[in-house]
Amino acid sequence: MQAFVFDGQSAQVKTVPKPTSATEALIRVHLAGICTTDREILKGYGQFRGTLGHEFVGTVEACPDPGWEGRRVVGEINCPCRSCTPCQNGDSIHCPSRQVLGIHDKDGAMAEYCLLPVANLHEVPETLSDRQAVFAEPLAAAVAILQRIPIPPSQTVAVIGDGKLGLLVAQVLRLNGAHVLLIGRHPEKWTRMGNHAIEGMKPEEWPTGQKVDRVVECSGSPEGLRFALDLVRPRGKIIMKSTVHASYILDFSRLALHEISLEGSRCGPFEPALRLMSRGLIMVESLIDDVFALEQARDALAQAMKPGALKILLDTKNH
Amino acid sequence: MQAFVFDGQSAQVKTVPKPTSATEALIRVHLAGICTTDREILKGYGQFRGTLGHEFVGTVEACPDPGWEGRRVVGEINCPCRSCTPCQNGDSIHCPSRQVLGIHDKDGAMAEYCLLPVANLHEVPETLSDRQAVFAEPLAAAVAILQRIPIPPSQTVAVIGDGKLGLLVAQVLRLNGAHVLLIGRHPEKWTRMGNHAIEGMKPEEWPTGQKVDRVVECSGSPEGLRFALDLVRPRGKIIMKSTVHASYILDFSRLALHEISLEGSRCGPFEPALRLMSRGLIMVESLIDDVFALEQARDALAQAMKPGALKILLDTKNH
């Protein structure tokens, strides 16, 4: 089969053996999404080698549980050992010996086929298109915020960074009526959702001295975190969503002085993400910039890494 | 009266007018404590000018409410406006126009007399000596952790830094049965409490890979925060107690990846601190290195700033 493989130096579309497994589901991938984490991997993050891709939708072709065969699925990316202390405490996404699809020690979904444990699968409702379902993983990551940090409807939330993640986070956090302000430099992105445009502002437009209850840092830049510290009120919370590697220089005495919390947040639950898309509450298709064939994966990656790019998908079906 | 005054360049014992107020209590100071924050002020923190000192015990000499006269007191250091939004929301320690005793816009307690609003006063139980009561403010800051972050008894907590604050924090957090480990370089400090010695360890003795639920950063150093990030388990919390100004260079993607929380914590409640000392549950007198007369305040400060020094007190009574 064809797969988009990173060998530690560069990523190339290659012919590789079709995977087989006696214990995992074999999934025929339809669409795969390119994420900022893929760029980080190409820069050396986690020393990953293998097939890229952790955002996908596909159909189960073979499975130890035959009831799954023929079903359209998305899949959670963490494959934990299910026996260590974190796993037994329900923290399996932090299993120290986990494999992570297309990120750590497990070939990913930018290929004709991938493998995942049955426990990771979620059936996609019929009402959702492939172009929607492929957003299940990044949308779950946005939903993850609410799993850890309550955001009451009366609060004001600033979301820093109007990239893919910021646009999903802003849509999720406004669902309960909270006042959400997206801070970014690309007003044309805030209005992509048409009638559901996101209220946005450029950093320089922020009213001096105005403070908010919660700030979600989605820019992945040191400037973003410094701005977050300026915006958050005393005893407020900053949620760190980005896994972009960057060394930050900050005066951390401000955390103690203003009793601010910095909370890291990573992967989230798929079922709420699928429900939100099914009910039409989150606009995801409007975030798609382009769809490339798997053979054009290198061009697709180059496009995805351009400043201001939103979601680039790989079509892996036509092989 | 005599007072230890910082003029922006240096701190000197000077003769200054005895303060008077129609609205605040006039307190005859008995003892004042030197804190790391005083060192920060001398380095320029907050551009404070005036009499230093925010840890004290004294006797009310004159008061708008005469019922307080003659009573022995300690005092909360934040003097909020009591009318702004934070004040009305119960967050008065974050009042943006607050004065802070000996720290911001209000003369402090390293003097024969100081002034504080009646609302800030707490009577000292008879059973406590002055040498104990003067620890009310720093002990309240240790207690503040539990006001914000629950620490269940089954958890393991690492306290980084075996200075004055770390020794108080370790004593407070072990009260509920939690396993508390103090990380520092001065084993002779951990045993100052005699039978109540604190379980301690040098950083290099930490078992590789061992993780804890909570880490309290009391060292105020970038190395301390980096070590905290190494020690804390996924989904654990790091509590930042230090207001030492230092620029930290850190890779913050670890916060998101491991879903770690960094929580700032500052001033705390006095009544629990007084109760803990009254009940003999916290050993504070053993933390006293020396007591200097107010006239020797410069020598006292030099002594307090030496590496490894614990609490230095100023005796302000004999004038």
Which tags fit this structure?
2 domains; 6-stranded parallel sheet; 319 residues; homodimer; alpha/beta; Rossmann fold
Question: What does this 3D model show about the protein?
Answer:
- The structure is a homodimer of 319-residue chains.
- Chain A is α/β, with parallel strands linked by helices.
- Helix content of chain A is 23%, strand content 29%.
- Chain A has 10 helices and 19 strands.
- In chain A, strand 1 and strand 2 (11-15) form a beta hairpin.
- In chain A, helix 4 (136-148) packs across helix 5 (164-173) and helix 4 packs across helix 9.
- The longest helix of chain A is centred in the middle third of the chain and has 13 residues, at 136-148.
Which percent bin holds the helix content of chain A? 10-25%
N-end to C-end Cα span of chain A: 8 Å
CATH class of the largest domain in chain A: Alpha Beta
Question: What is the gyration radius of chain A calculated from CA atoms?
Answer: 20 Å
Q: Could you tell me the strand content of chain A as a percent range?
A: 25-35%
Number of strands of chain A: 19
Overall spatial form of chain A: globular
Oligomer: homodimer
For CATH, the homologous superfamily of the largest domain in chain A is named as: Medium-chain alcohol dehydrogenases, catalytic domain
Q: CATH fold name of the largest domain in chain A, please?
A: Quinone Oxidoreductase, Chain A, domain 1
Q: What string, H for helix and E for strand, traces the elements of chain A in order? A: EEEHEEEEHEEEHHEHEHEEHEEHEHEHE
Main interface: chain pair and counts? A-B, 35 and 35 residues
User: What is the mean predicted local confidence, pLDDT of chain A?
Assistant: 94
Q: Using the 3D structure, state the CATH architecture of the largest domain in chain A.
A: Alpha-Beta Complex
Major sheet size, sense and barrel closure of chain A: 7 strands, mixed
